[in-house]
Amino acid sequence: MTSSKMTIGVDIGGTNIRAALVGEDGELGAHIKFRTESEHGPDELIPRLAEHLRGLIAQSPGEVKGVGVGCPGPLSSTTGIVYEAPNLFGWVNIPLGDRLSEALGLPVRIHNDANAATWGEFWLGAGRDVGTIVMYTLGTGVGGGLVIGGRLWTGPDDTAGELGHICIFPDGERCSCGARGCLEAYASAPAVARRAREALASGRESSLSRYPAEELTAHKVDHEADAGDALSIEIMQQTAEYLGLAAAAMVNALNPDLVIYGGGMTAAKAWLFPVIERVIAERCFDAPAARVRVVAAELGDDAGIIGAAGLAMSAL
Amino acid sequence: MTSSKMTIGVDIGGTNIRAALVGEDGELGAHIKFRTESEHGPDELIPRLAEHLRGLIAQSPGEVKGVGVGCPGPLSSTTGIVYEAPNLFGWVNIPLGDRLSEALGLPVRIHNDANAATWGEFWLGAGRDVGTIVMYTLGTGVGGGLVIGGRLWTGPDDTAGELGHICIFPDGERCSCGARGCLEAYASAPAVARRAREALASGRESSLSRYPAEELTAHKVDHEADAGDALSIEIMQQTAEYLGLAAAAMVNALNPDLVIYGGGMTAAKAWLFPVIERVIAERCFDAPAARVRVVAAELGDDAGIIGAAGLAMSAL
């Protein structure tokens, strides 16, 4: 790591905070991980974060030119203010960018965590050779991010890329966002588990029935599908149909090169991707359907760190 | 018209072709309109078009620097080739850009007609003061176009902006594109008329029943809604719900400044817009919902001419 333009990438999660030195070409250097423990509020957490980052900076004295932070939103990448971070206690209108910048004496850029991860995949991951990507993150929720013509598209309010809240069923299940029938209410990991529980409760036979209802997870549904359980296969394929409907709308709208899926549920890609590809082929115009490829994210948990660092680097 | 950088904008439609001199600031000069009459094929139509355009050029000798053409697609704005123009007889893989350019001795840029109209509204119409617009054209079909961060986004295959083919009902009506349940299958003008006929056939009482079924149009449904007919009001409001679902998905995805509706059915905006606004408020995150405005297109039939001219001007 002798890069002359090194940055630090930070990924703030509800449970852990991870950070690493990132070189000019995205190579990862020293990294740290510590518990978020946000219960004491931002006035305790931000100085603690700064201290950890000073430790990283000290490993390459004089080399670190800036810090990029991926943080749960809503927030403003322009002003560096976090309006609200649902999983961080007491985070309301926190000027995270300014406070970290003052503490470290370095420029700091903050971005929505999903957007940072999307930029990471675009820069060095699954999207590194293309211009336009639609990215979904399948986990507790269904997140998203867009790179359009080589630019991260965050919108004027840093809220663009909320791809999990496209409507799949106008009068469907209530979503965590308050609306009805969103993709997230059908295709997030908890939604997949809920749909499995509902099917079992309706009397469907399945090897899933050997688990207590409260222990059913999307991972177990994937596992039982792999073992040949008909209901589990049906649920995974139906999940893929929903994901395909949403992806097809974005393929017709944006004519992207790639649709990338990241997050824990991507482990089920052998069930998901063939169906998603079929739905795109059925629902999209010929040229965009022929161009687009459905792929898995490549950077895993590092996407956010790398992307946040890369965005800070570009801004320097 | 003494602009030193004048272009000609051309709008090729299935019925008429319209063209005009367009000044540097978008001011319209002399214009022409003639029947497309494509039945003799492109080898007759393109020279005839060139002759008409030479007549326009002769009105400002030496001033016209280029020609922009809006044409039904699919086509390539990069190579100037029209792959297929559904309403133009015999147009398959026609190098329209090159052929017009050779005939006129001027640079020629071609664009999808919906994209040209979107750029027109962005440059000089409803979107002239903003950065990001989602535009729908409500007519025989439901077309669309996107300007994202000040750039017309056409995608690598010039197919971006196909916003009418988002899925509203997964197992719904068959759409002209071959898929099921697209917005276009519910909210185009013919779809509105079809839904009215279906409601009447099912025995619903309505002042619409005084028209022969084959004479029912979206315009008549709008008219009867204005006169207080309950079924017509219901159909217009339901149409707006569908449009709102589609718009809300794009507002969450792109965080635009404006959603613009153009095309004939925008005459029903008093019925459509309040419902679309409510659905966006219900279904979108707070910040993008607070930002976005729902407005009518302002340039009418001139949007395509102005937009095509503006795109050619930018490329010169």
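The radius of gyration of chain B is 20 Å.
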